[in-house]
Automatic annotation (TrEMBL):
Pathway assignment: Cofactor biosynthesis; ubiquinone biosynthesis
Listed GO CC annotations: plasma membrane
Location(s) in or outside the cell: Cell inner membrane; Membrane
Membrane-crossing segments per the record: 21-37, 49-70, 96-113, 119-135, 165-183, 213-233, 239-257, 269-286
Protein name in UniProt: 4-hydroxybenzoate octaprenyltransferase
Family the UniProt entry places it in: Belongs to the UbiA prenyltransferase family.
Source lineage: Bacteria, Pseudomonadati, Pseudomonadota, Gammaproteobacteria, Enterobacterales
An individual GO BP term: ubiquinone biosynthetic process
Superkingdom as given in the UniProt entry: Bacteria
Pfam families in UniProt: UbiA
Entry's EC annotation: 2.5.1.39
Catalytic activity: all-trans-octaprenyl diphosphate + 4-hydroxybenzoate = 4-hydroxy-3-(all-trans-octaprenyl)benzoate + diphosphate
Length: 287
């Protein structure tokens, strides 16, 4: 086994967990950070912070792998995904399964450091990770399932930090579900024509010509719930400044998706990383 082969394998494994596309990891990380700071109303302890950061990475990696294991036949038929490690043959399904089990074991090792309520919630999180790849076959709203899955770290954080699940926790949970549906529908607009050919379901297909309008309604819902959160826990003005900036970012996203060009829809999707970052700054300086 020569050096170049090892490097090729390492790059393929990195690609399998989307190490070359960190935006997905960041979109899962931001709501976790929001919850860490809001649940404490100050900076979290380093121990809890580190456990959740590593947990986000390991479960995101596991989720990417199981998604590719389930979808490899579909991915091979779509131009954007046909070169992914499994459909291209760079990583075997056996190797992918071993890597998946490794990341699940890592996640489980981390969650064992937490309290019983958080451990219980982690099993629901794993269940959501496992079922999401199948949802695009059976429902027109797989984005909603992804929204619940990507929002699940929020109640886990509150359970660990406060041993309770207050209304603010569920308001943030709801806001994040709306936000995930925004950016994953934008992402689905990129692949809409290919998805129609292979029979994959998505919110972009379901919403059809009303996609921009419904995305706009979801964006408005995000802003309303965030304002409600700020009002209920008396966050400072900097939090509301961040909401205004997010409002401007949402307008920019609407401009990007106006003509439904796949490249522009993808840029709108990527722009959501700034939404997460700006909101984190608003929370950080607003608590």
């Amino acid at each position: 086994m020569n050096f170049s082969y090892k490097v090729t394998k390492l790059v393929a494994y990195c690609s399998l967990i989307r190490g070359n596309q960190p935006v997905g990891l960041l979109l899962l990380l931001w709501p976790t950070l929001w919850a860490l700071w809001l649940s404490e109303m100050s900076s979290p302890s380093f121990r809890v912070f580190l456990i959740f950061i590593l947990g986000v990475f390991s479960m995101r990696s596991a989720g990417c792998i199981v998604n590719d294991l389930v979808d490899w036949k579909i991915d091979s038929c779509i131009k954007r995904t046909c070169k992914r490690p499994i459909p291209s043959g760079l990583v075997s399904k056996k190797e992918a399964k071993i890597l998946f089990l490794f990341f699940v074991f890592l996640s489980f090792s981390l969650v064992l450091m937490m309290n019983e309520k958080t451990i219980f919630l982690s099993f629901i999180g794993l269940f959501l990770t496992l079922i999401y790849p199948f949802m695009k076959r059976y429902t027109n709203l797989p984005q909603m399932v992804l929204g619940i899955s990507f929002s699940w770290p929020i109640p886990m954080v509150w359970a660990e930090v406060t041993q309770s699940l207050p209304k603010i926790c569920w308001l943030l949970f709801l806001a994040n579900i709306f936000w995930v549906m925004v950016y994953d529908t934008q992402y689905a607009m990129v692949d809409r024509s290919d998805d129609l050919k292979v029979g994959v379901r998505s919110s972009a297909i379901l919403f059809n010509r009303y996609d921009k309008l419904i995305i706009g309604c979801l964006q408005l819902s995000v802003l309303i719930v965030l304002i409600l959160i700020g009002w209920k826990i008396h966050l400072a003005k900097s939090f509301y400044y961040s909401i205004f900036i997010i409002f401007l970012l949402f307008i920019y996203q609407q401009m990007l998706i106006a003509d439904r060009h796949p490249e522009d829809c993808f840029q709108a999707f990527l722009n959501n990383n700034w939404v997460g970052f700006v909101l984190f700054l608003g929370i950080f300086f607003g608590i």
